[in-house]
Amino acid sequence: MFFRSKAKPRDRDIADRIYTRIVEASRQPAFFTGYGIPDTLDGRFEMLSLHMFLGLRRFVAGSEADKALAQSVMELFVRDMDAALRELGVSDIKVPKRMKTLYGSFGGRIAGYTLAVEEGGEALHGALARNIFPDGGIDRNVLALADYIETVLRTLDGAEFDDLRSGVIAFADAAQFSRGERDNG
Predict the structure, then answer these.
(1) Rounded to an integer, what distance in angstroms lies between the CA atom of residue 178 and that of residue 185?
(2) 174 close to 34: Cβ distance less than 8 angstroms
(3) Fewer CB within 10 A of the end CB, N or C, for the chain?
(4) What angle do CA 128, 134, 135 make, to 5 degrees?
(5) For residues 34 and 175, what is the distance between their CA atoms, to the nearest angstrom?
(6) 78-100 pLDDT, tens per residue?
């Protein structure tokens, strides 16, 4: 793919650090071993979408420079999704259609999580159940994931924005909230 971000090299480096941190957080093993989230392409997409929302929420609401940084991170996400589809063997002809579908799903997730976080409680539980546990996730997993999200939001909302802007984004340890991990250990 012949895609090149318009961001300055320093901004691209920061966007890369932010995106790498988001991906690392979304791939915490506890999500797949303790929360009952399927370790599948769909399950990983859901966790990455959720963490993109969490990691970029303050940037999207920030200054024009912050929004541009969020856009650079989004460009990395799109490039990553495109590469993943190609690695899975999706043909060059079908990749754009699949990307359009994925990006539409992603946009819906972000809008849903934004509204759910604003409303809190049952709205967040409902959004998680619909998106991450569509086959009827165990209530304790929905509650554990909501606890995780609320903790991450408090941490990121309390973080110095200059730290976030430099790529220092702290996500919680998902294993701390997993009911399944606690029940098994």
Answers:
(1) 11
(2) yes
(3) C
(4) 135
(5) 7
(6) 888 777 777 777 777 877 777 77
